Please model this.
Amino acid sequence: MDRGESPAAFGALRVKALESLLVAKGLVDPAAVDALIDTYEHKVGPRNGARVVARAWSDPGYKRRLLTDANAALAELGYGGLQGEDMVVVENTAEVHNLVVCTLCSCYPWPVLGLPPVWYKSAPYRSRAVIDPRGVLSEFGLTIDEDVEVRVWDSTAELRYLVLPERPAGTDGWNEERLASLVTRDAMIGVANIATPGPGDHA
Model:
């Protein structure tokens, strides 16, 4: 690997080479690959989770259902299935901050978060998130006050977790679409909080 080339770029080249080989051998349809990638990047990506969060923020009844029976509540919005069969949603509050990890591999709720980021699958994150969650969060730029409890949830093939972030101040009267625009993938994993919107966001 060229010294100036990032590991991510090198990985992408390896994936492209493998895909080209499979296509050349007639084992993979490139159109099917493109459709799958498009689905998970744009349709089954974090925007689905953002919609779930926005609905929970704006509809107390839905929020209760989401925290009580996540599978049924997610199904109300059409989400579920492969890699999201058994879900639990945990809520961030002023007293508790939740963090999701998968210590064994990289189990991840694809239907609501799309494809897992590289760092989520990395050995350092998977081990240190359990041992030193505050330190890991600090490396993501998130400092949690000492009086706030940090809870770490270990996803498995049988059970996956989604964080319901705290709704930021200054969003009263916002519709679901505007609320969803604030929600990030990292906040739904627990390595970030939702930023309070600035003056320009209120227009």
